[in-house]
Every structure is written in structure tokens, then in C-alpha cells.
Design brief:
It is a single chain. This protein is mostly helical and 64 residues long. It has three helices and no strands. It is elongated.
Length: 64
């Protein structure tokens, strides 16, 4: 078997998803290492809920 076409497409799709997630996390002031959580099943749902309701440091520092 080996590494076929669809495996290659899957790897490219995951890599293309990781970059925007890392940029968004950086903009809100969170660590880019959290990107890994988005590729682990069920952990990605927990991380999404965490980010939705956690205080975002970049938003707390903006002028009011």
C-alpha cells in the first residue's frame, strides 16, 4: 500500500488548516501550540468551547 494520493491530499488539507488557526490564536493572544488540539478528535471540541468562553488577552488590552 504505502502513501497514496488521498493520504497526500489529507496531509495538505491539514497543513492548510493549521496556518489560519495558528494566526487566529496569535491575534487573540493565545499560544500557537493550541493548534495541535484542533487535530485531536474530541479534544478539538473541548478546545473550541474553551476558546469561546475564555477571556482573550488581546481583547482585554485594547483601548475602550
Amino acid at each position: 500500500m504505502g502513501f497514496g494520493f488521498w493520504n497526500f491530499v489529507t496531509v495538505i488539507a491539514l497543513a492548510a488548516t493549521a496556518v489560519p488557526v495558528a494566526v487566529i490564536l496569535d491575534r487573540v493572544g493565545l499560544s500557537k501550540w493550541w493548534t495541535i488540539a484542533f487535530f485531536v478528535p474530541l479534544l478539538n471540541l473541548a478546545a473550541l468551547w474553551l476558546f469561546a468562553f475564555a477571556p482573550w488577552p488581546a481583547l482585554d488590552d485594547r483601548p475602550k
